[in-house]
Amino acid sequence: MPNLNNKVALITGARRGMGRAHALTLAKYGAKVVVTDISQGECQQVVEEINKQGGHALALKLDVTQKDEVAQVFQAAVQKFGRIDVLVNNAGIAEFQSFLIMSEEEWDKTLDINLKGQFLCAQAAAIQMKKQGSGAIVNIASVAMGQQGIGLPNIAHYCASKGGIAALTEALAVELAQFNIRVNCVAPGIIETPMINTVKSDPKTFEAMLAQVPLRRAGKPEEVSELVAFLASDDSSYMTGSVVVIDGGWLAG
Ligand SMILES: NC(=O)c1ccc[n+]([C@@H]2O[C@H](COP(=O)([O-])OP(=O)(O)OC[C@H]3O[C@@H](n4cnc5c(N)ncnc54)[C@H](O)[C@@H]3O)[C@@H](O)[C@H]2O)c1
To answer: For residue 170, is pLDDT > 90?
Structure first.
C-alpha cells in the first residue's frame, strides 16, 4: 500500500469521475487532499466523503484555463496545508466533432482545458515544489495520445491534446529532476465515468470498442487511482518521465 501520510495532494477535475476516485484514494492512503473543479459545491461533497473516511480535505473552485485562478488556488492550498507534494493534472473534456467541420473555438476549448490547463497547474505546482525540495506530478493523458496504434475518429482535438500531455511529461521530467520533482503520466483506456456516456449511448460502438479490450470490460476509476497513488508516493521514487498505460490490455491486443 502506498504511504501518503504527511503529503498534500491537489487534484484537478475532482468533483466526479476519475478525479473524485483519485481524491478518495489518495486520502485513504493518508494524503491531505485539495479537491478542485469548476463547481465548488460538488467538490465539497467529495470533501465530506473524505471527512467521513477520517481524512482531511479542502474544496476549491478551479477552472484550470484561468491563470489567476490557478495562482489563487495554489496559494489557498499552501495557506491551508502548508505545502503541495502531489499534483494530479486530471481535468479534461472529450467533445466529439468531425474534423472537417471542427471550429477553431472547439479546437481551442479542448486544447485550453486539456493541455494549457496542465501547463498552468504544473507550473504553479513546480514553483512550490522547488521551494520544498521535492514533489510528484501525475499528468492524465489517454491511450488516444498517438503512436500507440489507436487512432480515434471525430476527436482530433482531444487526441492532439493528449499527445501534448505525453510530450509535456517527458520535457518536465527532464527539466524538473534537478529540483527532485518527478513527473509521470497515466494513459487510461476505456474507464467507466461520465466522460464515456456519449460512446455508451451507442451500444454497438461501445461493444465494438470493448471487443478490442482483452479484459472485455471498461476499467473502474478506482483501478486507475491505485496507479496514480503509486506514482504520487515515494514507492515510485526512481520513476520520472514515464507514460504508463492502463487499458485492460487494449494496446497489447
Ligand atoms: N473515461 C475515460 O475513458 C478516459 C480515458 C482516458 C483518459 N481519460 C481522462 O481522464 C481524465 C478524467 O476524466 P473522466 O473520465 O473522469 O471524465 P469526467 O468528465 O467525469 O471528469 C472530468 C472532470 O474535469 C472537469 N473539468 C472540465 N473542464 C474543466 C476546467 N476548465 N477546469 C477544471 N476542471 C474541469 C469536469 O468538471 C469533470 O469533473 C480526463 O483528463 C480524461 O481525458 C478518461
So the answer is: yes
